[in-house]
Amino acid sequence: MSSIPSKPQSKFFPAMKTPMLPKGTFKGKVALVTGGGTGLGKGMALMLSSLGASVAILGRRANVLEKTASELSSSTGNRVLALSCDVRDSDAVKTTIDKIESDIGLPTVVINNAAGNFVSPAERLSPNAWKTIVDIVLNGSANITLDLGKRLIKAGQGGSFLAITTTYTFRGSGFVASSAAAKSGVENMNRSLASEWGRYGIRLNCIAPGPIQTEGAFSRLDPTGRFTNNMLDKLPIGRLGEVEEIANLASFMLSDYASWMTGETVVLDGGELPFAAGEFNQFINTTNEEWDFLEKTIRESNAKQKKK
Ligand code: HXC
Ligand code: NAP
């Protein structure tokens, strides 16, 4: 995967990749990251592990998970448990969490990161295509959250949940309707449970990231690379996000430094969302010569209208 060149202004906005929280912030804690074998999930698992947590990573592909787990544990020295589990299957989720609990303890730090997605006009989606995305994203997150939530409540232990959503939960997006519907559902699930479960010491939040180049996302959302270069025009910061930037925000939101935050969705997107909301932001690539011409035309028409 070749990396996408940044715009010149990005030199003002370096991506800070080292952990911002103090060493040992998650020492003694058990974390669970779904989709932790690749992409953002792998980056967040690494950050939590480097901050002291024992981490369980879940996904469907055992070989991918095993490879990541041994990479992470040899880099941080902390325990990383790889478990193959399809989050759509509530029985498998239960068995997997049983195993985590007996091997490394009950997770109190939880990231619902696993997702399925692909671009497609909605009229080309079969019922099963729609169901597949909603099952992974929404029902998968619910399976993990409900199972662990019940265990934490029963154990009288607090916990902190985070879900990775997307910026199109705010206004929707064409060609990813099933993902948009499911991710909005996840945000509302977390907001709703934040209201219910504060009394049990449980917080739930979301991060809505903008574009970050991962193989899993970009191969399914821009398979030919046709749209990726235009993407930078919509990011005032002038570059894509980096996995470690999400991992730092995630670590903060899951830690006690954010213990007053619940039911929140934090957008981290290089300014894409506000840019998309500005009706006239498309003028961004207008040259000075074009502005000279536009200004002259506007002034001439002002003068004409004054004379009427
Ligand atoms: C139309 C499609 C399709 C496509 C699959 N289907 N791909 N329909 N266009 N491109 C249909 C299939 O025909 C089938 O329906 C149904 O979807 C399920 O397909 P399977 O291949 O059987 O499903 P499965 O093996 O479970 O794989 C799930 C998957 C796959 C979602 C299709 O892509 C996957 O494993 N994804 C996991 C990782 C991922 O998606 N990462 C990207 C996350 S990025 P029928 O009717 O034929 O049975 C993200 C946000 C990015 O979420 C935001 C960026 C800014
Ligand atoms: P990714 O590498 O494809 O991550 C998705 C992960 O989910 C994979 O590790 C995959 O592993 C796992 N997964 C998929 N279906 C699963 C299932 N049924 N059960 C268990 N695990 C499953 O893509 P990514 O870019 O890192 O995405 C991570 C998260 O960030 C997703 O929630 C995505 O929506 C979100 N996001 C990404 C971007 C971006 O630009 N990259 C932007 C906004 C939001 P297996 O295939 O082995 O199961």
TrEMBL record:
GO BP, sorted A to Z: fatty acid beta-oxidation
Record-linked PANTHER family: 17-BETA-HYDROXYSTEROID DEHYDROGENASE 14-RELATED, SHORT-CHAIN DEHYDROGENASE/REDUCTASE
InterPro entries membership: NAD(P)-bd_dom_sf (IPR036291), SDR_fam (IPR002347)
GO MF, any single term: 2,4-dienoyl-CoA reductase (NADPH) activity
Highest taxon of the lineage: Eukaryota
Protein name, UniProt field: 2,4-dienoyl-CoA reductase, mitochondrial
The entry's keywords: Oxidoreductase
Keyword Oxidoreductase: yes
Keyword Oxidoreductase (UniProt): yes
Record Pfam families: adh_short_C2
GO CC list: mitochondrion
